[in-house]
Please model this.
Amino acid sequence: MEADVSGRLLVLTWHNVHPTWCFPARRGVGARGFAKQLAMCRRLANVVPLEDAARRLAEGRPLPPRAVALTFDDGYRDNLSVVLPLLRRLGLPATFFLVPGILDSTVTPWWEVVGWLIRRSTAESVVVDGRSFPLRHPGERARASSGVCELLKRRNADARAAVVEELRERCRPAGTPPGRDMFLDWSAVGEIARAGFGIGSHTCAHHIMARENAATQCEDLARSRRELESNLSVEVRHLAYPNGKRDDYDAATITGARSAGYAAAWTTRGGFCTEMTPPFELRRYVIDPARGAAAFPLLLRQYLAARADTDIGPVDAEPPCASSM
Ligand SMILES: [Zn+2]
Model:
């Protein structure tokens, strides 16, 4: 007999699978770990399309037990080369949250630029916001990259761009900066859309919404939806907030999202979704592919394995997620 967990939805989020400048890992570890994670979802869960599951929750209709939806943010190129073939082989639905500015190459994701500047720096330390980051060995460079990214997430887009430019001068990096080959373009995501996968907006340029003023947010959310719909000939009703933590969106973001015509918006705050979860603050767990099955904390493993006599605990628990973007 199945447990009565039909009122819950677990949504998982990935970004890149292969290592990048900002998210380094040993080559092959991410792809192997991700394949294990998907196989685990296929074996233990009922993987449902995100949009349909959200509609059911909003209407108070039941979901299958152990319902799980899969999402991918930012449009890394390995979403086409690694993720799509695996999803197809396992017959799993998924939704991709995309950034028009990245797809048309007018935006180079700042976090990858920061990761490259720091890892390829010829300077032995950098100072950002009065904080000094030593760069003498790979461990210090990894800590500096994530530390600088966390500082930059607190700024608005213009201030962040200014710091990245200062960083470029201070780091005097060697080699070629991250280019367009790290991310999908319109033609590649057209393939994903035509294959029937869900497409959602992740804003026009991946600005962290709450750092921008209300008018900018409103215009961004409407435009990103419009551009995705017209370029891909699909309906876009779902939004994922960049970075997605509690202070990365605000009341103006939710108002802007509603008026732009979205039906729902997704955070990266861990937890299950139920019919009580506010539709513009839906929960997702960010999963690190390199950690394989270990990336699913105990609560999620209990949910996936739930039977009638299993108490899987509170629905709004927020265990720590992997780092998001
Ligand atoms: Zn993102």
About this structure: The pocket of zinc ion is lined by residues 73-74, 202, 206, 242, 325 (CB under 6 Å). Residues 214-232 form the longest helix (19 residues). The beta strands are 9-14, 46-47, 67-73, 95-98, 125-128, 131-134, 198-201, 238-240, 264-266, 285-286.
